[in-house]
Amino acid sequence: MSHTIQDQRPARAPKSVAPSRLTRGGLPRWAPAGIAVVSIALGCGIGAAFGLQSKIQWGLISALLFVTITYVASAVVENRRQAKDRVATSVVWVCFVLAVIPLLSLIWTTVSRGMNALDGDFLSHSMNGITSFEKGGGVYHALLGTIEQVALATAIAAPVGLLTAVYLVEYGRGSLAKAVTFFVDVMTGIPSIVAGLFILTTWNLMLGFGPSGFAGSMALSILMMPVVVRSTEEMLKLVPNELREAALALGVPKWRMILKVVLPTAIGGIATGVTLAVARIAGETAPIMLLVFGTQLINGNPFEGAQSSLPLYIWEQYKVGSEASYDRAWAAALVLIAFVMILNLVARGIARWKAPKTGR
Amino acid sequence: MASTTPTPLDTAPPVTTSAGSTGRAGDKIFAGLSKGSGILLLVIMASIAVFLTYRATLALSKNEGNFLTTFDWNASANPPVFGIAVLLFGTVVSSIIAMVIAVPIAVGIALFISHYAPRKLAAPLAYVVDLLAAVPSIIYGIWGALFLVPYLGGLNLWLDEYMGWTYVFDKTQVGVARSLFTVGILLAIMILPIVTSVSREVFLQVPRMNEEAALALGATRWEVIRMSVLPFGRSGVISASMLGLGRALGETMAVATVLSPSFLISGHILNPGGGTFAQNIAAKFDEANEFGRDALIASGLVLFLLTLLVNGAARMIIARRKEYSGANA
Amino acid sequence: MAKRIDVSGLSAFYGNHKAIDDISMTVEPRSVTAFIGPSGCGKSTFLRTLNRMHEVTPGGRVEGKVLLDDENLYGPGVDPVAVRRTVGMVFQRPNPFPTMSIFDNVAAGLRLNGNFKKSQLSDIVERSLQGANLWNEVKDRLNKPGSGLSGGQQQRLCIARAIAVEPQVLLMDEPCSALDPISTLAIEDLIGELKERFTIVIVTHNMQQAARVSDRTAFFNLAAVGQPGKLVEIDDTDRIFSNPSVQATEDYISGRFG
Description:
- The structure holds 3 protein chains of 3 kinds.
- Chain B is mostly helical.
- Chain B contains 10 helices and 2 strands, in the order αββααααααααα.
- In chain B, helix 2 packs antiparallel against helix 7 (about 220-250).
- Chain C has helices at about 45-50, 80-85, 100-110, 120-130, 135-140, 150-165, 180-195, 205-215, 235-240, 245-255, and strands at about 5-15, 15-25, 30-35, 60-70, 70, 85-90, 170-175, 200-205, 215-220, 230-235.
- By secondary structure, chain C is an alpha/beta fold.
- Chain C is built from 10 helices and 10 strands.
- Chains A and B meet through helix 2, helix 3, helix 5, helix 6 and helix 7 of A and helix 1, helix 2, helix 3, helix 4 and helix 5 of B.
- Chain C: Keywords: ATP-binding, Nucleotide-binding, Translocase, Transport.
């Protein structure tokens, strides 16, 4: 299109890249949607024609067609740069759809299958006297175990994590602070099963204690500490220095300044961080499997004897492999997801509720 | 602590009033407590390394096989024979598959949320991604085993038929798709939310004026992303990937549910079989005697070192990025 | 290489908020037109409507016509990317691409089109840097990062980057407000040279600067905070600064303005 006006270009700038017209032949606005519909139809057609069983293949073929048709159409009607831009756009959309499908399917499967066994009885009964292949039974003992273990873990990890963060932000200088910062980062990456093995070697093998909820809590607290330190540190750094100086200028000792000024200002963010950390450890299975052992009975004492927990319960029921136990596993998964999601929503709630205070 | 002393605050600090002295003592206690917590963290890290190493040496001293090259795990037998070759291979291969699939897609979704999605859609999407990052791995595990495995059967056959010549995708054994490849895909789905979430944060931090500079030169949206967004976000994406890699390496339950383990190393990743460190510990722990546990602890130590390596690398990249952006400030 | 801009009935919005209301004016080719006015009067917004950068801001929307010679920038089928190629822009704060070298920064716009030989590219880069009075200062370190330059040099680098693609019009949004007096002087001299080749529109808070560099000056004002900004008058710079036809202009220029 552009060469029709070539001769109008000033002679002294033959290399000018300025386009001589501002308009371009463009694909209509509905083109991406249209191309998407066509490629999905074609993808399904090809899939059906060649007898491909897996819907995943149908989807992949459609996605591929979508990107290719977009490029060709745009390259023909528009230009190569536009075509590249459109391909990038379509690839980004395809990425999004590709990722959303399995994640939605995960949520959908959990909810729909979980509803099979989930009822009041399921939440209020243990597995006492229920054989693996029978229907019925419940998750009460596991829920109780999870709550107790997570609460204990939080009771250990939250103060330690909080104080460490205070140390790093308010006191920490020199090589010790650097070492702590570094190892907090490294600790974030410890696989949960390694934390479990560590407590196993010390608490169980060396000190000779049996499996208990508390042993699990200790492993969970190792996983939780770095997360708490990290988020608290971020929040404390957001507290403006003027506030600290203002308090110190009034002659308040530093520790009271921290307790009365810094921590209250950041408390919303800290609570959010701790809640999110709780949500993370609530779903940990591996250390619980090594340390808490699992039981079918209600054991309300986390310091004595085996307990159960939601993730461990799911794993046990999955391993049994009967129809009834699969139903129980999904129902427990639904309970666990709900538990984690509620914690997440609570965290957001705290963040939003406290936000005006920490904001400007 | 909570009750305020009646002494007015404006008395000069050097004057040793009762409030001043409790203040100083309080300062010492509080500073000591917080420093102590920091040291406690270091002690925990050190003791993890020390105790795991100690138990591991107990196991290694009696191992009749070669710890690095033996393709077997009979630690509870007499004499014990075990080696980590298969586990190392499986862990690395499944994590690489996960990274190859997850990182590009995660970058795509992050860009989608930060630069492509309609604004009304972007915020809730980001929120959903954050929620998905919190879904426990055991749930990914049972979903993978009961839902994904049957669905991947067709894809596996298809890959075998058309890509079989690549050796890697040659499926020589019949059986359901409980393979390292499936594990890799499941791990990819699992780490997708976290990698997306961190990458999105980084993309949103790209200074607006950098993007406008590209726009004002007449760049298309993709060119803006290539000129301004990706160069700025590159190191952030790398550290996000490392975070994801760390998770994939240490993942236990999602692998344990999906994989049908065997002690063979095979380049045919579609064949069922193989194993990973974490999965092997979970699978062998119940029937292990005390010595068997020590052997599992030894393999856990290797996993620990592996994740340490990855995290150290991630930290170095982040540190370099800080220097880099400092130079440009 | 320079084109006339004809604006008629132009209003710009941020979401539901109207930022500028019903502006019409003509900008002559190969001249410098300065926009002055109090903060928030919409002069920068108006400038950004001239190369369709306004719509990049979330919620940004424009009504009205902007004719570049005879073509309406907001006509159907107009590609904003092509518009921005034709109408270059320099921003308030220097914004070289932080990850690119000086050379790559200048070549960035050219590379978007792709088909340049290495020698052509270095020719244009040299010419553009000379045009921006920066060549002598950077010719020995073209491969160093552009972010290592001083603020004034960075701003001239951005000007070089903008003129490298030979635009018809050059928009400058308070190009000197982040710079020291010496760098400001250098940029002002440069503007005087560039107007031989380009149509230049400059937004400035500094009235002396407007008086020094521009041929024509437009005064923008707003009735009250929250109200849309309006064009009060546009005239030859000499007239605006000596004998403006509107009282508000005189008040603003003589500093009698609230």
